[in-house]
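Troubleshooting: if your tokenizer reports a length mismatch, compare your output against this known-good record of 180 residues.
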Amino acid sequence: MTNNEINQPGVDPKQLKKQERQKLYENLHKQKLANKQAKMAERKKIREEYVKQNQEINKYEKRCKEDIKNKLNDFKTQVASNKLSKKDAKLQFKAYRKERINQFRQDEQRILNLSSEELRKSFSFRFRRWFFGVGKEFSRVTWIRGKQVLKDFGIILILVSIMALIFLGLDYLINVIPRG
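Known-good structure output:
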């Protein structure tokens, strides 16, 4: 703001300062919006990359499972046609399966290593990956049946009642013996 602007007739210096502040706040607001939009665009890019990687890994995992199934069927046909004994077929299948799973894990790591450093550093990516791992572990859990729960509960009730009777009996004996 120059002295000429202040000294102009009909222009209030306080109003000029207020206008300058408003312009400054507007510029700051525009910068904040631009930064926010840039961050959102970056997050969207990271999210798309993450989804793409997961899709690629899922496709590869399906292909790996299909390969293992096909190899199992191949070994079954060889056993049926007496080309291989059951024992040999099992050993060969286990070796093939182990090798194929190891190869899948290496390829999965290779796919994951293609991600950018920002993707690895981002909290949301690590948080989602953690939930994905929890989901995988949760799918591996085997739940017991209702009958087994009832059976175990009955055993616990019986043991608790037996222990209660033993302690009540000991308490009674301890209290009766000193009185004679």
